[in-house]
């Protein structure tokens, strides 16, 4: 199993995260579409891992995808770990925080911008700061 800069016991994660954050970040859950607080959020700032505070995305990379989850066309270099995900009979690329291993969402090659990527992110896995 990979070692991360930030490693905690499951008890510590449960104590520090909300129930929804724990379900998504640590148990690879997914929030219901169109329910996350950052889905239609377009302020200038930065998005961080809700588990450890690692900076993941700049607001300039966010776009309206109409998929039901916050979408970005690129992550900050070195902030994301990519892992093949074959759950639910699909082949996808899971995105994890490179600092703590928290499940952020998935990345797809159907983005509308020049990167061609759509980082489909759970709102519960990120925090926003406009400073």
Describe the protein's architecture and organization.
Residues 10-131 form the MsrB domain. Pfam families: SelR (PF01641). This is peptide-methionine (R)-S-oxide reductase. Its EC number is 1.8.4.12. By secondary structure, the protein is mostly beta strands. It has a single domain (10-129), classed as Beta Complex (Metal Binding Protein, Guanine Nucleotide Exchange Factor, Chain A). It has helices at residues 10-16, 19-26; strands at 46-49, 55-58, 62-63, 71-72, 80-85, 92-97, 103-108, 118-121, 126-129. It has a six-stranded antiparallel β-sheet. A hairpin with a 6-residue loop joins β5 and β6 (92-97). The N and C termini lie far apart (35 Å). The mean pLDDT is 96.
Widest sheet: strand ordering? 3-4-8-7-6-5
CATH architectural type: Beta Complex
CATH homologous superfamily placement: Peptide methionine sulfoxide reductase
Low-confidence stretches: none
What's the count of strands?
9
Count of helices? 2
The residue-averaged pLDDT reads 96
> What do we call the CATH topology?
Metal Binding Protein, Guanine Nucleotide Exchange Factor, Chain A
Q: Helix content range of the residues, please?
A: 10-25%
Shape: globular
Summed up, the domain count is 1
Radius of gyration: 14 Å
- Please give the alpha-carbon distance between the first and last residues: 35 Å
Query: Which class in CATH terms?
Result: Mainly Beta
Sheet-strand content, in percent, reads 25-35%
Regarding quaternary structure, how should these chains be classified? single chain
- SS-derived structural category: mainly beta
> What's the SSE pattern?
HHEEEEEEEEE
